[in-house]
């Protein structure tokens, strides 16, 4: 007799503004019940997914599945990391607005296919980043993307169209700031529209800020996008979507294990799209191979 593996599905009911009731049916149909038993938990507030995931990992669940977007994935992964002696692997069932990490890892966007991946239990270890002590797994940063994530968090309506509307409204008004970026003895001083620290290649929705980034190279890609003229916005959007932002003359990238970003003033940053307020100094480092994740 083989011992059954256990899965906890941590479901964020508001992620992506998408209905998730049919998920129960999908799991019943797609999960291999001869090898797995499962439980559900719905998150009730921000940070709840972290606590649920930490307890599940402590209780010996083999897999904690984050059902939501990058914010939910961040909290679930944090919970597993925090336990110290890691036990559970993370699965992702993409239900967010952007699903950056899931897309980077080539996890299917269809919930049924994503659930079926759990049956195979193929895992890979991935890096995490830390910004002033707070973990991120996909992309973190300061500047325009942090500003948008702050606005988006206040917006009741989630989903891709919400992002686009906020970004289009704000892009003309946004004032770039000065940054000093230090990594591996290199110092870059630039006025920038945004400074993104990428563990994975994209923000979500296949917007590739760091097309060459790898979640298993033990490095973070620091992407410094200088201010660019208004008439180039469509070109920059196209470059983001076609993995060609790195060849823009406005983009500078450095790779590093430890990075310090100094900015003019304290203000918003984002960690996997979730806004947070931080001081003017951002100390960032990579935590190599820190979490196991189920992949195709
Ligand atoms: N019950 C809840 N009520 C309100 N907010 C919640 C609840 N559960 C979780 N949250 C918060 O919802 C936020 C958004 O979640 P998530 O990032 O997964 O979705 P998304 O923003 O739509 O997708 P993506 O990050 O892929 O764009 C997270 O900050 C999380 O803390």
Automatic annotation (TrEMBL):
Signal peptide: none annotated. Residues 2-135 form the DAGKc domain. InterPro entries: ATP-NAD_kinase_N (IPR017438), Diacylglycerol/lipid_kinase (IPR005218), Diacylglycerol_kinase_cat_dom (IPR001206), Lipid_Phosphate_FormReg (IPR050187), NAD/diacylglycerol_kinase_sf (IPR016064), YegS/DAGK_C (IPR045540). One of its GO terms (cellular component) is plasma membrane. Gene3D superfamilies: 2.60.200.40, Probable inorganic polyphosphate/atp-NAD kinase, domain 1 (3.40.50.10330). One of its GO terms (molecular function) is metal ion binding. One of its GO terms (biological process) is phospholipid biosynthetic process. It holds the Pfam family DAGK_cat. Keywords: ATP-binding, Kinase, Lipid biosynthesis, Lipid metabolism, Magnesium, Metal-binding, Nucleotide-binding, Phospholipid biosynthesis, Phospholipid metabolism, Transferase. The keyword Nucleotide-binding applies. Its cofactor is Mg(2+). PROSITE patterns: DAGK (PS50146). The keyword rRNA processing does not apply. This is YegS/Rv2252/BmrU family lipid kinase.
